[in-house]
Amino acid sequence: MSGKHYKGPEVSCCIKYFIFGFNVIFWFLGITFLGIGLWAWNEKGVLSNISSITDLGGFDPVWLFLVVGGVMFILGFAGCIGALRENTFLLKFFSVFLGIIFFLELTAGVLAFVFKDWIKDQLYFFINNNIRAYRDDIDLQNLIDFTQEYWQCCGAFGADDWNLNIYFNCTDSNASRERCGVPFSCCTKDPAVRRIEVDQQIVIYTKGCVPQFEKWLQDNLTIVAGIFIGIALLQIFGICLAQNLVSDIEAVRASW
Fold first, then answer.
1. Topology of domain 117-217, per CATH?
2. So where does this one cross the membrane (predicted)?
3. Are residues 169 and 162 in contact, defined by beta-carbon separation less than 8 angstroms?
4. Rounded mean pLDDT of 30-40?
């Protein structure tokens, strides 16, 4: 028997360890994102008072780290352990989960193209809702400031949108020193809150973030489309590799 060689089906070592190695990286990235998210929540006292999650009127950027990290962790775990242990259940779960994500991305892209006006209205509502909560959360404040500085914009469609915030609105009852002003990230010169009544063109950005985002998207459409196509191809490639490995494993087991 020692002189005979096995001629039956075999599991491809290249595919197996490629899936394993790629998902180890993915797994650790997921753990890192989750760690950052949990650390941020701990710093804000959310972990000691879970009910405070619902207190923020706007969007908490920490959710991005937690959701993305959670998805990466689950995918990385299933792909890594599934390939290493030749576990067909985990590999099939990896393929299905990746397929669902791909389908959701494709659906979101189609809907965004078909319902552009509705998406624009929702973006306007989302930004204004977060303008109201600007001072409620430091992470949200940093995200808005970064967005306004990067796209050189102010508010959803203009600086007047900041009237929605209790600290910046121009009502007579507002006793804030920032009354009738805008955040420093709207300013074109010194990083300080400035009044918006005098010479807006010189003092602050007058364009809103929604039209600036549309302009940026049009200017970088090729790059954005290339990134999304690249991600989609990687997902399809991952699904094909996982299914191929499952077929190899099942073929080997059937030959026993």
1. Cd81 Antigen, Extracellular Domain; Chain: A (1.10.1450)
2. 20-41, 61-84, 96-115, 223-246
3. yes
4. 93
